[in-house]
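[Solved] Which block belongs to which protein?

Original post:
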Amino acid sequence: MRATGDGIEILTVGRIGVDLYAEEPGATFIEARRFQKSVGGSPTNVAVAAARLGRRAAVLTKVGDDALGAYVRHALSAEFGVDTRFVGTHPTLRTPVVLAALDPPADPQIVFYREPAAPDSTILPGDVDPGLAGSVPILWVSGGALAAEPSRGTTRGLLELRGRRRHTILDLDYRPSFWASERAATREIGGSVDLATIAVGNREECRVAVGEADADMAASALLARGIESAIVKLGSEGVLVATPGERRVLAPLPVEVVCGLGAGDAFGGALCHALLSGLGAFSAVELANAAGALVASRLLCADAMPTEPELRALLERARG
């Protein structure tokens, strides 16, 4: 598959699958009896979140030639408005499944089924026109896309081709089970920092990428590598946003957490939307914070992505 992407504002790269969420809050896998399905995969849901906010978003990924792959492709296009021209199909590997038990709701237990390999680890250079990756206003790359070949080489090639164009976003996205070793993750994710202009990750992901778990030190390390905006998520403490001229911690928005999964993806999609709207780093993260909070207060991920009026209403309430 090779196609151009006329009109696309955001291209995300990385994993896709089907998420099955336990409906019972606080239930372990032993206790849970009912599960709801939704589209899954962090970069895919970033595209969903951006599309929900009115952006023309596409995802470069690959599903299996199976019923779950057909479901994901249909949901993205028909229900969420995501461009699926770059969603390929692998002839033998199965579409991945992720199970989540809300124990605890803020940090659910997760089991990934991606064996023997996931289709999204087989993205090839010919699966997308390189000119699109070079010119699209926002390229969002998940660190997980660098975990295995051939997707690793394809993703790295797209970043290099882009030449550190503005709004090249690297989601540090470290999942230990995807990697042969932490050292390999440091080499690949950390090495890709030099090709990005914005880096987003929590303290553990920053430690893996740049060797610093302290938020301020991690931000400084990212800026020293040429990052223009370092965004370090602090969980219940908020988000540290650092640019070469300023750094600030933005407080979290108080919500009752139903499911912590997907909050980061909503954050990413809203961040992309805000940057395309011309907002600076701090204002963009403020909007992204609201998106993450709203999705954390809902059960599902893709289906729960907020609209802009919902985000604005939450921010107004938070400001009193």
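(Second protein starts here: sequence line, then its structure tokens.)
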Amino acid sequence: MATAPRTPFIAGNWKMNLDHLQAIAFVQKLAWTLKDKNHDFGDVEVAVFPPFTDLRSVQTLIEGDKLELKFGAQDLSQHDAGAYTGEISGAFLAALDSAYVIIGHSERRQYHGETDELVAAKVAAAHRHGIVPVICVGETAEDLEQHGPSAVPVAQLRTALEGAAAGREIVVAYEPVWAIGSGQAATSAQAQQVCEALRAVIAEVQGDEAAAATRVLYGGSVKAGNIAGFLKEPDVDGALVGGASLQLEEFASIVRFKSHVGTL
């Protein structure tokens, strides 16, 4: 049976930027800009990932104005409730109709000591509450030199998948740490090599059908000038965009990557 083509996914991770008022203004302008360009959200899915304090405002705007944008959170707790000061439960995110949640971003791993096992527990928490986890994997420059391409992200994903519920959707984001914020993105060939290896892990753990359906994104100094090259690769299904997602025109141009080169 033929597998349906994977819908490209462009996700904007705002990190710790934009308060709730700025978020409302940005989402409105983004929606207007894409509408003016006749963007088809069924052709390329678009989601923003604001800080926790913005989520209710973004939800209200998207639902009230019936916008086709999706939204998600930047993290969640592995716990559902309890004495965990400062943590955010997946139940809270589900109550806000958060479609997605980023898990295991390199900044969480670096600054908060998140391990592969904790990432797996958070993947399980997301699935318990009906939220699609965007599982981030990637290697540092030292990892790349010591282990070669794909070894570290493949190992990270294999552990993360231990928390995934059978038959439930995941998104995987390959973000080479050496490329994030550096202005020096991986080449499209480098991204393809690792994304192909990640898809092979999904096939090994979850089966060929799941591997064929799962979207694998690239992240790391993504911009309008390089996005089309990444999306030409057979195993790259979109992008997790950092800094450029805060620049309205740039992000809208990334979303419209097909227009840069015609039909891919």
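Accepted answer:
You had them paired correctly. Confirming on the second one: The beta strands are 9-13, 45-49, 70-73, 100-103, 132-137, 171-174, 215-218, 238-241.
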